[in-house]
Description:
- The structure is a homodimer.
- In chain A, 47% of the residues lie in helices and 21% in strands.
- By secondary structure, chain A is an alpha/beta fold.
- In chain A, strands 3, 4, 5, 6, 9, 10 and 11 form a 7-stranded mixed β-sheet that branches.
- Chain B binds a DNA duplex through residues 24-26, 34-38, 40-42, 44-45, 57-62.
Amino acid sequence: MPLPPLVADLTGFDLLLSVARLGSVGRAATEHRVSQPAASAKLRELERRLGLTLLHRTPRGSTLTGTGALVADWARTAVDAADALATGVAALRVTHESRLAVAASQTVAEYLLPPWLVALRAAHPGLTVTLQAANSADVAAAVLAGRVELGFVEGPDQPAGLHAETVATDRLAVVVAPGHPWARRRSVAAAELAATPLVSREAGSGTRRAYEEALGLAQAAPLLELSSTTAIKHAVAAGSGAAVLSSLAVTAELAAGTLVAVPTGVALQRRLRAVWKAGDQLTGPARDLYAIARRHR
Amino acid sequence: MPLPPLVADLTGFDLLLSVARLGSVGRAATEHRVSQPAASAKLRELERRLGLTLLHRTPRGSTLTGTGALVADWARTAVDAADALATGVAALRVTHESRLAVAASQTVAEYLLPPWLVALRAAHPGLTVTLQAANSADVAAAVLAGRVELGFVEGPDQPAGLHAETVATDRLAVVVAPGHPWARRRSVAAAELAATPLVSREAGSGTRRAYEEALGLAQAAPLLELSSTTAIKHAVAAGSGAAVLSSLAVTAELAAGTLVAVPTGVALQRRLRAVWKAGDQLTGPARDLYAIARRHR
DNA sequence: CAGAGGCATAACGCCAGCTTATGACCTCAG
DNA sequence: CTGAGGTCATAAGCTGGCGTTATGCCTCTG
Lengths: 297, 297
């Protein structure tokens, strides 16, 4: 199901947010580097397509109507998400004149880092960040080798030669499709969970290791081994079985009802930690990013 | 600061998500009702602009690369937010062949309802929802008069003639600008809070009423009275003083560091309740929406 | 009463992006 | 080994959306 064309292009909504902030269509146009008539037409077209009146236009400027304010607040969420996407992509891009290099494990890179980077960028407008997404072992290696200043790792291991500080705790959730027998269970005991083959990532993934450790398993026998979280979610939603995933990864699906979380008797959680070279003191943007990560905890 | 042009248009990212799900550029093109070359060109252009390789193209289809999967996950967040925006707008639009009419107070309409409606639409693909955003008293009146089947209200009042069930609890947060004297305080006592004029909504707003009740005030003297949550946030961020706002309304600002939450000795919270006519039984989409709201709690 | 600031309308030109048609490539079946 | 079917890339041509400048009208201010 493709995105409705109404919202595929966010520039109109972005313009609306500028009008809300600046109080005039003309000033919003200036901020967006377009002519005033272009902005005026764009906003009018937006109103026409939504079938809503968003602005009170007066000779002294423009203000939002009630519905305009409501739409603007929803739009802000979408624009912020797009902004986080842009920031993440910019960091992923290998820029050779980078200023801060960061490495992060999959879960952190996917779900936590983008808003942190948006906040960091607010504090350091000109800063370029490069991000390397890798598994926890590679992150540790990159920090040790000095390729990145700061790393974020998951899982139980204590990396040698690194100073580690917990910045967040990630709960792991057992998820199944709504039609799965477990979907209506009050609870699934640790023993039953340990005895059930799951849809999971490849051996050595941070999520899988944390799960194996929590259940005291040396190596869990997988029902199906897939290489990405997304693939696992789809397989489970299609009824392939149960999976253990970061709760951060399944909020949207739980909200939509595509997946159902099953309560368990086990505390499935793991710490997400910031790591840097032991003995070193974090400075500049790296220090700020660490502070932001702690603050968001 | 306008949105980077890279992400202003989400169609490319949306297409990427379809490719991830369907495994082929051509099928994604079909789903989006465009020709295969158009989709191919669009994805290639996306890769060019991001400076990243997102797809493995093979004669048997296309799959995401590692960075492609990462970008796709971030993109999914943005696309979902845009989808919530579209759903909210569609519900706001007065459609005359509506099927489910809902009224909600400001906080619920702004922050909670869009994802609920997205989930509801997943269960009822053809359903048209109309939404009326109003204050709690008007919501109750609309339900009583039968203009809407289901309402969502906030605040302490028990609406006469209506059956009410709590669907969520909203914490109120005391927020100030980072430079405000309170920003570094460990705690602000109830008495001090009650004695301090705040930036607030007009008398009678749900948030303001809940705050007055929690502090045992008949009527709080405002420092500044503004008509929208957004205006209040900006005024506070600019250093105008302190405000009490729904924690739902300030998550983004707290994350970005624009605003700072001040711990207080008072339990500032209020219930958000679903209401329908006493004696009636919820049926059909209204019943499902209520269930979704409870599930998201 | 004049000027400034704000939004709308008009006229025009350009380029982005879509479509159809076709080609190149791989895989698999017989 | 060979042909069919599926996938993606390239080419060429056209349309129309969108932005620009120029201008007019309105309202509030001094």
